[in-house]
Design a protein that fits this description.
The chain is α/β, with parallel strands linked by helices. About 50% of the residues lie in helices and about 15% in strands. The protein has a single domain (about 10-135), classed as Rossmann fold. Strands 2-1-3-4-5 form a five-stranded parallel sheet, with helices on both faces.
């Protein structure tokens, strides 16, 4: 199941989750103004807003009090409603184990702080573009399924018309 990017990627909804206000502000300032960005200071606030609004992408800090980013993504990926939302970790952790763990838990990317604005923009743009492409493929698949159903119906009608045809008698010629 894909995340439902119901608008153009340029108008996407993005949640930034970080306990540090200056990190929230810097991250938000790095993103294009066309995005609808929500800044949240904890995983608890994230889950509260997720009950009302679904983002196209989540930028998630790893090191937060109460519930860290790894615990948060486990919950996100275990819930049907949020499992397909891409999560990009933003963290000051630079060790290979943290990076591996984040990606194994389902993160789409893992960027280290301080994040270069252009790198953040490209990562976000890439993952929103992937969602848009997945949604296009899904809509094309649904259209093909509809065509298959129509073709099956036509085939049944054809079989009914020519059913019992023994090669000697043409039911259409009668």
């Amino acid at each position: 199941m894909f995340s439902r990017l119901s608008r153009s990627p340029e108008n996407s909804v993005i949640f930034i989750v970080d306990d540090n206000l200056s990190n929230l502000d810097a991250t938000k300032a790095s993103l294009p103004k066309s995005y609808e960005v929500f800044s949240l200071q904890s995983a608890e606030k994230l889950f509260k807003i997720l009950a009302r609004k679904t983002p196209d992408l989540i930028l998630l800090d790893v090191e937060m009090p109460v519930m860290n980013g790894f615990e948060t993504i486990k919950i996100l990926k275990s819930e049907k409603k949020t499992s397909s939302i891409p999560v990009i970790f933003l963290s000051s952790l630079t060790d290979t184990e943290s990076l591996r763990q984040g990606l194994e838990l389902g993160a789409a990317d893992f960027l280290t702080k301080p994040v270069l604005p252009k790198l953040l923009q490209k990562s976000v743009e890439l993952h929103l573009s992937v969602i848009a492409q997945q949604n296009l493929l899904e809509s094309q698949r649904r259209a093909l399924d509809g065509n298959d159903a129509e073709l099956s119906s036509l085939r049944k009608g054809y079989d009914t018309l020519v059913g019992g045809h023994d090669g000697k008698h043409n039911p259409l010629a009668s």
